[in-house]
Specification:
With 674 residues, the protein is α+β, with helices and mostly antiparallel strands. The chain is built from 21 helices and 22 strands. It starts with a helix and ends in a 5-residue tail after the last strand.
Length: 674
């Protein structure tokens, strides 16, 4: 906990790492004189605060991104590809993580997220490309995926985009880490073996591959959503379950070799390390692998192994290697779940089993065979139920604050699915082992996996039919005031209205915008039901149908203008503004006006100001439509531009109307000055 708090404290101002170093030196001197827990925790706090700040602030990419005048000119750059490229079919480019080794014949060394065209690239290729650097963009809407923060947690602070139409030149192959390259090649071979005989059913093939290899990137969005909504997405993230399975299989096989116990324990280490590499060093897998290594070393030294100590030691070792791992969801979920399992599963299982306990003075051997079987079955069931409840409760706060979505059927779904998933993993491992001996046996085992995976999918689809099987939860929704939020969705013109615990959505946008912006926003606000869906213009039917399937929609209406009253203030929504629309508006004054498409541009905007005399204009057009002095002293009305300021929210706060943009602009309309 001290190490985690130190990393969090240093994350806001990494440049202050010399101060944290001074604090470490001072507390270390105190700890040498006073040998107790508190000074030791203070030393740990300061050393990890220093280490995190030093890792970030001394990174050349971070320093380049913090320059006062950012370099936006074209460069010739040498890149070493550090990940498997992903093809963007729309732009005909490839995206990948890379390490910059040279800029215009000047030696450098920092990571970037790159996008370039050219021949198909692969891990370890060294390429030369012409393009520009940029700082990763941040979201424009609440709930939207923050790709910039995601890259930052990967220690990447710059993007590189090659010039359009200028393909990169590959100068060398196989320049990456040989161990990682071998792991990627093995992953592809294993995935192909697991798919043998299942080509006609991609859903089952992806399920089997995801459970054994943790192939979430290769899984379709609909399948991941099914597992996420039923609380079983952990089966797709290679974690302690898979590592324990492989370690247990290795132990069971190696103990028949008649080697000493200490050598058998150490022989497990290469197995778990290899599996960790094949699954891409996912945080949960790394945690389980480090724990397995520490426990194996303890067994080999014939020393008692404290599991909680091993858990904490693995966390410290991971943070020493990369302090950014603390902010990964997989890291947080994994440690929270495992710590809860170690501390709470046993007591809760005993509590659940207490009504079924027999007299402790009665030997169990005196019971009938069927009674002993029933007794053990109930005890095992209580342990499994306790495990599911504890894991769900331990991960609930993280899911609420980060994902804003909670599955209410997760406990029961896991009770039915996890045993079947374990069987699929065992059969998959057997198929991998027999594939080199007999392809026919491997295909038979894969078809057995197909049958069990079909049963798993049938159970999950049935769980997804339960009303309210998965709900959106947001702690902030309990205290949110009445408000109107205009999302920055390009041409989507999507507006969310929240009045007295009722939610209304104006337009849905295109399907791609719905999945990337609107749906995540509604989830982040804890919205599960839309009282009214208002369509102001022609929208793609796919997005509207998706909205109806994801949220309970009471009614759908059409309207060209929407007037919302927030206390004594009036907010007028005009997605398509024209002279005809303006003349038909049944309103003589509005405090805030949102206008999307301006079909007369400046003339219509001036007419709008004369007609409604608004205090604030929210414009969804281009920046050219915004007056240069929109926030100047004489500017009237004040203007917000969605493409510049991000989503804009007008909320009723203590009788005033507070207007805030997602990028930080703010304006308050006083109730007395209206």
């Amino acid at each position: 906990m001290a190490a985690s708090l130190g990393v969090i404290a240093s994350d806001q101002q990494p440049e202050c790492w010399p101060g944290w170093l001074s604090g470490f030196v001072c507390t270390a001197l105190i700890a040498l004189k006073i040998r107790s827990t508190l000074p030791t925790c203070l030393v740990t706090f300061f050393i990890f605060a220093f280490w995190h700040g030093n890792q970030v602030a001394t990174d050349p990419g971070y320093q380049r991104s913090r320059e006062e005048t950012f370099d936006t000119i074209e460069h010739t750059v040498t890149l070493l590809i550090k990940s498997e490229p992903k093809v963007d079919q729309l732009r005909s480019t490839q995206r990948f993580f890379a390490r910059v080794s040279c800029i215009d014949n000047r030696r450098v060394d920092f990571p970037v997220f790159a996008e370039s065209s050219g021949e198909p690239f692969s891990y370890g290729d060294r390429i030369i490309s012409q393009g520009k650097f940029s700082i990763p963009s941040h979201p424009m809407n609440p709930g939207e995926f923050d790709f910039g923060s995601y890259l930052r947690r990967q220690n990447i602070y710059l993007n590189f985009r090659a010039l359009r139409g200028v393909p990169a030149l590959v100068t060398a192959h196989s320049q990456g880490n040989p161990f990682v390259a071998a792991a990627l090649a093995a992953r592809h071979r294993l995935a192909q073996v697991l798919q043998d005989g299942l080509e006609d059913d991609p859903e089952v093939a992806q399920t089997v591959q995801g459970m054994i290899l943790g192939g979430r990137a290769e899984t379709s969005a609909d399948l991941k959503k099914l597992f996420r909504d039923t609380g079983t997405i952990h089966l797709f993230a290679a974690s302690g379950l898979q590592v324990s399975l492989f370690a247990g299989l290795a132990w069971s096989c190696l103990r028949y070799v008649r080697l000493p116990r200490r050598w058998v324990a150490l022989s497990i280490v290469p197995v778990v390390v290899a599996y960790c590499a094949v699954t891409g060093f996912y945080p949960a897998t790394v945690r389980a692998t480090v724990m397995a290594i520490l426990m194996s070393i303890g067994f080999s030294l014939e020393r008692p192994v404290a599991k909680i100590n091993s858990l904490c030691a693995s966390g410290l070792l991971i943070l020493i290697h990369d302090t950014q791992e603390l902010f990964q969801s997989g890291f947080e979920l994994s440690f929270a779940a495992v710590f809860a399992i170690m501390t709470a599963v046993g007591p809760l299982a005993e509590l659940l089993f207490r009504p079924f306990q027999i007299d402790p003075f009665l030997p169990i051997q005196l019971l009938e065979r069927w009674q002993r079987t029933l007794y053990r079955t109930i005890h095992r069931t209580c342990e499994v139920v306790s495990l599911s409840i504890v894991c769900w409760c331990a991960t609930l706060p993280i899911l609420v604050f980060q994902e804003h979505r909670v599955s209410l059927v997760a406990i029961f779904a896991n009770l039915l699915v996890v045993p079947l998933a374990t069987t699929v993993m065992l059969l998959g491992v057997a198929a991998l082992l027999f594939s080199s001996l007999s392809g026919w046996i491997a295909a038979c085992l894969n078809n057995t996996c197909w049958l069990i995976a079909k049963a798993i999918l049938m159970i999950l689809h049935g769980a997804a039919l339960v009303p309210c099987h998965s709900i959106n939860v947001s702690p902030s929704s309990l205290i949110q005031p009445d408000r109107v939020t205009v999302l920055c969705e390009g041409s989507g013109q999507v507006i969310h209205v929240h009045l007295k615990s009722h939610d209304c959505l104006v337009n849905t946008g295109r399907l791609s915008q719905w999945r990337a912006i609107t749906e995540p926003y509604l989830q982040s606000q804890g919205v599960n039901r839309l009282d009214t869906l208002i369509l102001c213009n022609a929208h793609p039917r796919e997005a509207t149908d998706q909205a109806k399937s994801e949220f309970q929609v009471d009614k759908v209406i059409s309207s060209e203008a929407v007037l919302v009253r927030l206390g004594q203030f009036r907010v007028l929504i005009l997605p398509d503004l024209s002279q005809q629309t303006l003349s038909t508006v049944q309103c003589d004054h509005a405090d805030v006006v949102y206008c999307g498409h301006l079909q007369g541009q400046r003339l219509t905007q001036n007419s709008l100001v004369v007609r409604l005399s608004p205090s604030v204009l929210i414009l969804g057009g281009s920046k050219a439509q915004i007056p240069a002095n929109s926030f100047g002293a004489q500017a009237s009305p004040k203007c917000f531009c969605l493409r510049r300021d991000g989503a804009v929210t007008a909320a009723l706060m203590d009788g005033d109307l507070l207007i805030q943009s997602y990028r930080g602009s703010e304006l308050r309309l006083r109730s007395l000055s209206r």
